[in-house]
Every structure is written in C-alpha cells, then in structure tokens.
Amino acid sequence: MPDMLLDVQGLETTFKTPDGVVHAVNGVSFGLKEGETLGVVGESGCGKTVTMHSVLRLIPAPPGKIVAGKAFFFGQDLLQMSNEEIRHVRGARISMIFQDPMTSLNPVLSIGKQLAEPLMLHLGMSKKEAENRSTELLAMVGIPNAHERLKDYPHQYSGGMRQRVMIAMALSCSPQILIADEPTTALDVTIQAQIMDLVKHLRNELGMSIIWITHDLGVVAGLAQRVMVMYGGFIIEEADVKDLYANPSHPYTIGLLGSLPRVDEKERHRLYSIEGAPPVLYNKPTACPFAPRCKWAMERCWNENPPLEPVASRHNVACWMDIKTGRPRS
Amino acid sequence: MAETQVVQTSEAKRDMRKVLLSIQNLRVWFELRRFGFGVAGYVRAVDDVSFDLHEGEAIAVVGESGCGKSSLMKTILGLYRPREGKVVFDGQVIGEMGRRGLNWYRAQVGYIQQDPYGALPPFMSLQRILDEPLLIGGLRNKKERIRRIHKVLGEVKMHPVEDFLPKFPHMLSGGQQQRTVIARAMIREPKLIVADEPVSMLDASVRVEILKLLRGLQESHDLSFIYITHDLSTVKYFSERIFVMYAGKLVEKGPIGQILRNPLHPYTFALMAATSDPDAKNADTYKEVPPGEPPSLVKPPAGCRFHPRCARAIAGLCDQQEPPEFEPEANHQVQCWLYQ
Q: What's the pTM?
C-alpha cells in the first residue's frame, strides 16, 4: 500500500499486571490515506487508545510493551525510531488531542506559554514570532480577544474553550496527522457539536488526515469517511462509513448500532442490548473474543479466532458467520 | 401511533393520580463569600422552578452541565436548603419535618448516582452495602434483612445472588456496579427514585440494559421517577414528560411526544440539533448550533437567559424582560417571548 500516509502492520501491545499479562492490542493492521478521516470505535478497554498510543510510543514501559508490529510513516518505522527521532514526529508531524482538556493542560503555565512551546521547539520560532502565531491559532479556533487571552491560565477558560486550546496546540505545527482521543466526550452536547463543526472546517481548510477515537457511533457518522470497530484488542470490522451503517456485518457492530437511542425516530423502536460485559484478555485468545456475548456463536467460534477478511469491496469483517444469510462463511 | 397512545394513557393516568411531589417556586442560591465573610453575590443555581410529579409518573430533566439540574435534585433529596419556595412530598414540607420525619422521607426516596464506582464504598462487600440502609431504617431481624437483599438483587438481575454477596465493588463490571447502586436505592422500597445521569458513565452496549432495567422497575413497582440527563436521545425510552432546564430555569415543559415532535423553545431546538445521530449523511453537513456557552449563574443575562445565544431573539424585549410561562399547546409550557 504505497499511498498510505500511515501504515500500521500487526501491532501487538501487552501490559504486565500483578494478575498476569494483559493483551491489550492483538495484531492490529490499518492504513490511513492522505486527507482521510478514520474513526476508531469501541468500548472502554477495547484497545483503541492503546493502539494509537503505541503508534506514537506513548505507552509507559514498563508495564507496557510493544511486542510486535510496524508503523510506517513516510517510509520510516515509528516503532524502531530512537527517542530523539520520535520527539520530532510527535507534536510536529503527528499530533494528538486528549480526552480531558483540564488534565492535559499545565495549570501553572499561561495558555500563551503552552501554545508557544511547541512552536519554538519544533519550528524554531523566536519568542515574538511564536506569540504572534499563537494569537492567530487561538483566533482560528474561535476564541474571542485572542491576544489578551494568551495571558490567561487554564482555569480561566471553560471546558469547551480548553478543548479549543488543545486543538489549537495540536494544529500549531501543521501536522500531517491529527489523532483525537475522545475529544468531545467530556463536553456538553451543544459544545460537542461546536467542536465537531470546528474540526470539520479546519480539516477542509488544512487538508490533514484525522484519526478520531470514540465510543460514540453518532459522532463518527458525522465526521469520518472510514471506520474501524475494535473489540478485545482486535479490529473486528472495517468499512467506509456509509457502508458500515447500511450493512453492519459483525454481530458486535450490529448490536452497537441497534443499541443506540435516537431522537429523530417517530416510533419507539425496540432497543437491542448486548448481554454481558467486554472481556479482559489475560491470555492471547484462541477463540473469537466476542463469542461469549454473541447469539450467533457456533462451535467454530470457540475454537478459532476469525481473521479479518473482505466481504465486499473495502469492507472487512472478522466473523465466521455470514449474518445476512445465517450461514457460516467457508 | 404507539407513542401517542403512551402519552394519552399517561395523561389519563396523571389526572387520576394524586400529586406525590410538588415543587413550588423553588430558588436555590449559593452565597459567594468575600474574605470568608460578607456576601459578594449569589450563584443562582435554581431560580423560580415549579412543577408537580404524580404517583407512578416518570419525568426527565434535561440540560447541560452547570444549568442547575443537580442542585435541583439535591434540594429534592433534602441535601440543600432552598432559599425560597418549598418542596412538598406527600403533603409534608421537606426541611420542616424534623429528625423522625427526615428518616421517614429518606426511606421514601431512592437516589441513583452517576458514577457507580465512586458511589459504592470500596471497603464494603455487597452484602454490607445493602444491609446498611436496612439497619439504619431500624430493621433488626437479620433473616428478614437477608430476604430483602436477595429479593432486591434478584430484581436488578444479579444472578446468582449468592455469588455476588461477598464481592467488593472493584470485582464488579461497570454495569454490575450500577445495578448494585440501583439495588441500594430500591432496598427500602421507596415511592420516588431520583436518578442523576444513571447511564452516562457506562459503555454503549451496557447502557441500554440499565435503561430497560430502570424502566421495568419503574413500571412493576409503580414508582415515581425523576431522570436527570444531558442526553435527549435516551429520554424517549424512559419518561412521560420532559423539563428542559437552562441557566437555573425550566424553559420548556411538556409531554415527551410533543416536545420531540414540536420543540418550541430555541434552546430545545439547539439541543436536539446538537445530539449526534448515527447517520452517515451527517459527515458532509454542518450543524446549526448556537454560538457561545451557557451563562454564569452569578450574573445571568438580563431578560431571557438564552437571548445572547439565540438567533431569534427580539431586540428590546428578550434582552430586557424575563419571559413568563406561555402555553401555546395544551400541557406544553414554554418560557419564550416568541409565543406571547
């Protein structure tokens, strides 16, 4: 796949805990094209955050360990880089927005200082240039009186404005890839919609690629072109967003979509619920990780873990069963 | 069709039922101190709120963080004292009932917290967590207590009960923890349950089960229910009436079907527009969201509190006079000058 901006192959990450080794990511492969927005969907503990942190080498080691895999970015393997080399990628060429804007900003530094730091570090700007650029960035993400507000500290900003600052900071060095880890989960619905509109505008203006991690299928629908669904450290379904919502093919995806309450529907449609809880993987699974909660599970599901295979063009599913026909796949 | 029937039956039911909880012109203000004494101002968390809740009725209070919905709930629970107005439960005014009355009141009201892990004491087993409210309620008979614990755990579908009793909260999954919190709220057989965002901390696949469980309990025990949430999409599966709260005021009240089909207040519009839908069509469109953020409750804007963010604000009216409650449709009230 030569046209991929980021090409991750067979990524495996484990964590050593007192109870045993947790296999958080088990052989995840995906690609991100230039200008594409990829949604990564899954419940807490499914490995979506660990996958992205592994790619940026943000996993605390120990206890975490990247056991196997490659992540090519402009022909270079991010996982083989030295610490010094990866520092020049992080923040400058691949940047990240974290879930909680309050704990991600330093409370004792002014917003202006925090915005200027990456500019001076990665782009070698002088203090004056960095200040001017910071003002532009704050104005770009829609903060009024940008220049005066540079002197303010994080606690003087509201939650939505802090997340705007995080976005400004992530965009400050014009990265090729923006990784957003549930950036709207901690925000109110109207503010969430404002932030999503802002990201869409900025994406269209700046033409960057985005990886958007979320557990909310509604948010992904409004933003992404391609979606991958993760469960138990595996990618279990991957498709274009329209295709995924029209023809979900993995029982877990079907369950997730069926369990979403919606405002606009006239009737109270019956909500589908998935019994049981997501797994914690202490052993490398030999069965399908979803089998204990799956109502279509058959004997093969308990013995072999299904690989991710194409079922239609640009649509891959990891399931032994063809849900539409109700027959096992050959 | 099904929905209108539900509304009609609840409407009919409501007329026959007596009022269980009545909130009358409630104001909950918090003092802001200067140098430890001297009042510098007030946070007007709840400002002139009135409504009636009937027996067996489920209502939802919808609003964003900081709109005062949690202060309203805590006042109903008797944890905050109102500055003005009254909370009347079953004919008795809360705050004037004395120690005995308060003990009785606490048995009548169950509270389901938002964060189940934070709400359960980590050093107590499930058996002790559920035993404690019964002991405080003065139930000395141990056999009877154990019977009640088994019954309530069965009701929240924690099977087999024996396996769960010796467990500590950290051994449970998020969904099981929330079930335990629900069991604790139910164990003294209350008439009213107050649930503060009971599913917002849970994973999507578990959320629906908890909502179904709560609805089932509400119907089988004929409970009155106050469901507090910021998520309009879950409300429909739950309640008969919605109250939309903004900056300390109930800006719109009405039956669920009417509000979802025909929202009147511009803020309700905005909330509905902002709720994300799992529809791939939205990828290329922008949403019409009001700019800005909810106002500070220390100095709320003059006039209508939504007017600085409102696209339909009438200059000279909305920014000066506070809108009273209008009733453009039967049973559907709105505080907005557009409907005068």
A: 0.79
